[in-house]
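Following up on my earlier thread - several people asked me to post the actual chain instead of describing it. Fair enough. Here it is, all 276 residues.
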Amino acid sequence: MKLKFLGTAAAEGVPAVFCNCPTCQRAKARGGKDVRTRSQILLDDDALFDFPMDTYMHMLRYKLDLSRIKRVLITHSHMDHCYPQEFCMRGGPFAHGLTEERVTIYGNETVCKIFANDTDREIRPEVKQSLSVRALRPFDQVTDDDMRIIALPASHTQGEECLVYYVERNGDGVLLLNDTGPLQRAVFEKLYAMGVNVTVAVLDCTYGAIRHGAGRHMGLYDIVDQCELMRAVGLVKSDAKIIATHLSHNTDLDYDGISALAAKENIVVAFDGMEA
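Reply from S.P.:
Thanks for posting it. Predicted structure:
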């Protein structure tokens, strides 16, 4: 399965929208891999993992045909992961010659409610008919064409049943643990029992090289701990690729700095535009 990291930042981006900290000033001056837009991953050109407000810019930067997207996996209702208003434009008179007639949006119940509320005022009936919004709960399993999707419980926002996902196609299995704190062993054990094959694991690294612990995000050494736990239960083999993404500006490390530390742990740090 081909992954393209369209955006690799936490909610505020890097440089952050209103920030003048040293990290943000350095990112503005240097550009390149030190600039990060809101987190989003393209899977095999026909699926998106999360839908932030930067999706339009991602379309421009990477010359994407977003009408090819058949499914969107949304983790939770924060606007850097769920910006449903854009879907009001998926049809005439705003869009013509769509490659795919329909798209399915997967998310928790809160995401589905926000999607309906935020699009209700402007969406045209014919556009609404082309969208399927489907609620998932932890460990729900869906087969969408040739893609197997398993929703998993995230450790993130209290009061919302946030999700992360496992996606499988053609023998490749991608575990997407984005915008979540560390998951419990029982989650990995249950996923393993469902007969998955994790070849790539993508994990939250909001706090850079800082160990965050049992919070709502992770840092590099939380990723190390999670990988050890996943290997212990047999979920992730030694040759699986481990990728860190969703980085915040709240660290003193630039891309080269965090990458050097991550390389010692056999972890790749994603950057905007990276393919894996």
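The chain has a mean pLDDT of 96. That should answer part of your original question.
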